[in-house]
Amino acid sequence: MVAKRIIPCLDVKDGGVVKGINFEGLREVGDAVEMGVQYARDGADELVYLDISATQEGRRTFAGLVERIALGIDIPFTVGGGIGSIEDAARLLDAGADKISLNSAAIADPSLIGRIALKYGSQFVVVAIDAKCIEGRWTCTTHGGKRLTDVELFAWAREAGEILFTSMDHDGTRAGYADAVYARLADELTIPVIASGGAGSVEDIRRVLCEGRADAALAASIFHYGQIPIPTLKQALRAAGINVRM
Question: Which end of the chain is more exposed for a tag (fewer CB within 10 A), N or C?
């Protein structure tokens, strides 16, 4: 049985890690490199770094910061934000990233996913999906959740090799993940699904990995504010019968 993954997410703005609720009210919570080093020591399986303002501001993702992260940690990490070409992907791979995450650019040009995967391998590309439920329809957004599209979650998810789906309705609330949505994605897809948005307790993470059948649970607030240390979380999940790396 493939082990379930625990992945801290570090949203980065102007070089610092920030967190908000429903993608709003951001406040800085720490240094991107220092926090990543500590999470690696604590037993995180992977890290995700998202430059959350890169696309909105029309600039490229933080290659210099990626180099510093790569020097400091020894676990895989994904970077995203402002990636719009194969050249952008190459620059981040050269800087030390293990995977890149596409969102806005992939919706604008779906062929970008395949072109990067053809050159570097599908395991290098994660499609990040930020969506909200509007009148019963899960609608994808771009530009850090600022722009609605006409793209529907379940149809779009089939285009990816691995997806990181964040429910904007749950993000930062600590009220639990959108478990039923992840269960449906698990039914309809054969690719790995990373769950994001709403972790507030060990039970929330247990549910999304079991009832939601997600392959990995991504969280931010509970780790950033020390609510649930990663070793404590993994011990509890192992006690609940979930296969996690200790």
Answer: N
Residue given tokens 């596409």 in the structure block: 102
Mean pLDDT of 106-135: 92
Neighbours of 187 (CB within 10 A): 9
Catalytic site includes residue 42: no
Condensed to tens digits (0 to 9), the pLDDT of residues 48-92 reads: 998 876 555 445 567 888 999 999 999 999 999 889 999 999 999
- What is the rounded average pLDDT of the residues 135-148? 91
Percent of residues in the chain assigned helix, strand, coil, to nearest 5: 35, 30, 35
Cβ pair 47, 10 in contact under 8 A: yes
Strand 5-13 to strand 16-21: parallel, antiparallel, or no bridges (unpaired)?
A: antiparallel
DSSP E strand boundaries for the chain:
5-13, 16-21, 24-31, 47-51, 77-80, 99-102, 125-134, 137-142, 147-152, 163-167, 193-196, 216-219
Catalytic residue among 11, 45, 171, 215: 11
Residue 186 in contact with residue 212, Cβ under 8 Å?
yes
Residue matched to tokens 């709003």:
24
Whole-number Å distance between alpha carbons of 201 and 61:
31
Among candidate residues 130, 171, 204, 215, the one labeled active-site is: 130
Query: With bands split at pLDDT 50, 70 and 90, how would you rate the model's confidence at 17?
Result: confident
Question: What does the chain come to in residues?
Answer: 246
User: Which residues have CB under 8 Å from 234's CB, separation 6+?
Assistant: 6, 43, 244, 245, 246
